[in-house]
Design a protein that fits this description.
Layout lengths: L6 H22 L5 H45 L2 H17 L2 H45 L5 H17 L5 H51 L5 H17 L5 H43 L5 H17 L5 H53 L3 H13 L6 H38 L25 H12 L8 H18 L5 H9 L9 H8 L3
Helix pairs in contact: 1-2, 2-3, 2-4, 3-4, 4-6, 5-6, 6-7, 6-8, 7-8, 8-9, 8-10, 10-11, 10-12, 11-12, 12-16, 13-14, 13-15, 13-16
């Protein structure tokens, strides 16, 4: 036998075979050959083994069926009807696989369970029919509403299908139509979601391309040399772009995220190494700044610190944790020195301004005295006072003193010229009156009285004075004028310098008293001074 259904018939056949074998042996009256007896024994054992296996299988299936019957009764008592329906389908299949003998043994339990199932099935149809009509109306209404959240709509349709299936079968006359109508309503409600999901799939594909591009840029950045600040900024921008990139499929995201984390870790290790090198360089600049503060020359210290500041600007970023601290330390050293120097400079400027204010008052006093001065001695005293003033180191102070000194010199020259003119006028008046006394000659001209007689006559000197000053030459003959001009050139050549009016007047006075016939010459000379 090959199946359980053949088991009973095979057992009967085996008994008939054994009975026929015994009858044949008795009729033979001779011993059965050993090889034939062995074959008979083997064949009989094979039949018994096959029957035993099939019978054991039947007994096992029977025990399992009875166990399921007991489980269905327990579920019925617990009110778990949905599970009961599913278990009954399996029970029915198991019962149909039993042979007729086993079915007779399990018939009572099976009929009892079938009655329970039929009762529940009738009750289910009674309950499911109106509930399915209600759910169908709800689904049709949902299909008519616009989709605001595709994911929520999909969950609603999925949950509705699960609830519909949990209801079981409705009235057989209406169940197929209800199922078809509900399927159509579900499809109509889900159709907009399918379009939205297709759009989402396209967006995810675009997001996938974006993330792959970011990974390409990260890999390129890993093998590109650039300043630390630029590297950190580029990494920050790519990280931000990765965070803002849209969603992709879960399986794609996991693979991309693994690549991203690996590249990100490598870049951050590269950035950390570069920032540590920059931190060491900046720490060295801090040490140099500390050493510069101990230099005896503040000007040299300022030069060194300014150079260090320029070198600091050329260095890269040393990392968030160290860069700011190093900068604050370096800046405190530089600011401390330059602030102190600035304070000293401001104090110096304040002192200079105070000195300048004092000097301005002194200069105003001297200028006022100068305006009132009528004597050369007074002006000379004011010049001495001006030279003794202490000047602050200000260009405007020096300019003001120079201007006042020029005014003093101009006033002194003017008073000196006035004095000389007055003295010469007195001299000319005395000479016109026929008086000649050396004390009447101005001090600047007295040395000429003690010298030798001049080479030019008094008349020639008169003409020379007129030529030199450009006045009164209309009374001179051309020949005489030319002769005097040649004499002046000779005096210039011998003396090595240009002859002036004062020198010619000294020569004129050196001729002594003025004779009566020289009075016209005196008048001509007096008119020139």
């Amino acid at each position: 036998p090959a199946t359980a259904e053949e088991c009973d018939q095979a057992a009967t056949q085996l008994q008939q075979f054994k009975q026929q074998w015994r009858q044949s042996v008795q009729q033979l009256g001779l011993p059965v050959p050993a090889d034939l007896a062995a074959q008979q024994q083997q064949l009989q054992q094979r039949w018994k083994a096959t029957l035993t296996e099939l019978q054991q299988q039947q007994h096992k299936q029977l025990r399992q069926l009875r166990s399921k019957c007991a489980e269905i009764k327990r579920l019925h008592g617990a009110g778990r009807f949905k599970v009961l329906f599913g278990l009954y389908k399996g029970l029915l299949s198991d019962y149909q696989q039993l042979d007729s003998s086993a079915q007779q043994q399990a018939e009572r339990d099976f009929n009892e369970i079938t009655a329970l199932y039929q009762e529940l099935n009738d009750l289910q149809q009674y309950i499911a029919t109106p509930r399915k009509h209600e759910m169908l109306a709800q689904m049709q209404q949902l299909a008519a509403e616009p989709v605001e959240d595709a994911k929520q709509r999909a969950e609603q349709v999925k949950l509705a299908r699960a609830n519909w299936n949990s209801l079981g079968k409705a009235d057989p006359a209406a169940d197929d139509n209800l199922n078809q109508a509900f399927d159509e309503a579900c499809e109509a409600a889900f159709a907009p979601c399918r379009e939205l999901f297709a759009k989402q799939d396209a967006e995810r594909a675009a997001h996938l391309a974006q993330r792959q591009q970011i990974l390409t840029e990260l890999a390129l950045l890993l093998h590109t040399e650039m300043p630390e600040k630029a590297l950190e900024q580029s990494l920050r921008q790519l990280t931000q772009r990765w965070r803002e990139a849209g969603a992709v499929k879960r399986q794609d995201y996991q693979a991309l995220q693994q690549q991203y984390q690996q590249l990100n870790q490598q870049l951050r290790a590269k950035l950390t190494a570069a920032q540590q090198a920059q931190a060491a360089a900046k720490q060295a600049l801090v040490a140099e700044a500390q050493s510069a503060l101990s230099l005896p020359d503040q000007g040299q210290t300022a030069t060194v610190l300014k150079e260090l500041q320029q070198r600091w600007k050329q260095l890269g970023f040393a990392g968030k944790q160290q860069d700011q601290a190093l900068w604050l330390e370096f800046r405190a050293l530089c600011d401390g020195f330059f602030n102190q120097r600035q304070a000293e400079h401001q104090a110096q400027q304040a002192a200079q301004q105070q000195a300048w204010s004092t000097l301005q008052q002194q200069l105003r006093d001297i200028a006022k005295a100068l305006a009132d001065a009528t004597e050369l001695s007074t002006v000379q005293q004011l010049q001495q006072q001006l030279q003794q003033l202490t000047l602050p180191d200000l260009a405007e102070a020096r300019a003001a003193r120079e201007q006042l000194a020029t005014e003093l010199s101009s006033k002194a020259a003017s008073l000196r010229q006035q004095k000389q003119k007055t003295e010469l006028n007195k001299l000319f008046e005395a000479l016109a009156a026929g008086q000649w006394r050396p004390e009447l000659v101005p001090a600047g001209y007295r040395d000429a009285l003690q010298g030798a007689t001049p080479p030019l006559s008094r008349r020639e000197l008169t003409v020379a004075l007129e030529l030199l000053t450009g006045q009164g030459t209309t009374q001179v003959e051309p020949g005489e004028k030319q002769q005097v001009q040649l004499a002046l050139l000779s005096m210039k050549h011998n003396g090595g310098q240009q002859v002036n009016a004062e020198q010619l007047l000294q020569h004129w006075l050196a001729h002594g008293p003025v004779a009566a016939n020289e009075q016209p010459l005196l008048q001509r000379v007096a008119a020139l001074f």
